[in-house]
């Protein structure tokens, strides 16, 4: 799949949930941990 098409689809999924309902907006530690995991190979 084209990388830009994949991003477009993923963006739609993220926008479907209101900001106040997103788990990372409620829990900064959870977001920080996920960011670290995402940076690992």
Polypeptide structure, described:
- InterPro entries: Stress-induced_KGG_rpt.
- This is Stress-induced protein.
- Pfam families: KGG (PF10685).
- It contains three helices and no strands.
- It is mainly α.
- It is flat.
- The model has no long low-confidence stretch (mean pLDDT 76).
Features:
41 residues, single chain, mainly alpha
Characterize the largest beta sheet: strand count, sense, and whether it forms a barrel.
Answer: none
- Measured by DSSP, the beta-strand proportion falls in under 5%
The average pLDDT score comes to 76
Poorly predicted runs? none
Distance between the termini: 22 Å
Listing every helix as H and every strand as E from the N terminus to the C terminus, the arrangement reads HHH
Give the radius of gyration: 13 Å
